[in-house]
Amino acid sequence: MTKLKELVGIMKDKASQGKAAILSKRAALSLLRATSHDSFTPSTSKHLSTLLSAGEGSRATASAAVELLMDRLQSTQSSAVALKCLIAVHHVIKRGSFIMRDQLPYSGGGRNNLNLSKFRDRSSPVCWELSSWVRWYAKHVEQLLWASRIVGFFLGVEAEADSAKG
Q1: Which stretches make up the ENTH domain (predicted)?
Q2: Measured on CA atoms in the order 135, 140, 144, 147, is the torsion positive or negative?
């Protein structure tokens, strides 16, 4: 049964990647590859860089990339996909353009922005265990977003003017 679920996950990945390739959305294709169902393959820096490059264009492009990332995070039931999405969100916070970071969700109260406090992947004992990591990492990212909004800048990110110099 586990092998069947893995096969279905791989087929879903390939179908989504094929659709993105047909629609020629480079950032979407890289996001799907960076957040695949394969729990043994980490996201590549190439795919994450392509995702981040979407924030170097217009606000509309950055917004679409972040919306795609957040939709994937909210709709998945796979702990591997959720962790990879959270890693991508963390990359946006740390290395993304201001325009892209500005598109990340937050609420005034800063509580449960990513809405993963009840996330559970029941497909296997390992995935069940990974679910607790998903909830912990989501809370960490939520707190980082909340604190950054409170202080008025993103914590742990060099000022864009400073990074351009060095």
Answers
A1: 19-155
A2: positive
